């Protein structure tokens, strides 16, 4: 299996939707601790997976 970073689609509009969705779960996010969800608002990373060529 080979994994390479893939170019994400236009993430800007989706960031706003992600923030809105996460804010709906504020009480649940608190259970992760003071720093438990710091990365929830980071940009998503996408990977392209392919079968590696057999030698």
What does this structure look like?
The chain has 55 residues and is α+β, with helices and mostly antiparallel strands. The chain has a domain at 1-24 and 46-55. The chain has two helices and two strands. The chain has helices spanning 12-23, 26-30; strands spanning 2-5, 47-50. The protein has a two-stranded antiparallel sheet with strand order 1-2. The mean pLDDT is 78.
Q: What sort of overall outline do the alpha carbons produce when their principal axes are compared?
A: elongated
Unreliable parts? none
Radius of gyration, taken over Cα atoms and rounded to an integer in Å: 16 Å
Mean pLDDT: 78
Total of helices? 2
Kindly report the oligomeric state of this protein: single chain
Query: What's the arrangement of strands in the largest beta sheet?
Result: 1-2
Question: Could you give the topology of this structure?
Answer:
Elements: E1 2-5, H1 12-23, H2 26-30, E2 47-50
Antiparallel strand pairs: 1-2
């Amino acid at each position: 299996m080979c994994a390479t970073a893939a170019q994400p689609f236009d993430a800007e509009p989706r960031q706003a939707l992600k923030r809105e969705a996460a804010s709906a779960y504020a009480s649940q996010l608190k259970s992760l601790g003071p720093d438990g969800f710091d990365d929830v608002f980071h940009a998503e990373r996408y990977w392209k997976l392919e079968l590696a060529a057999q030698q």
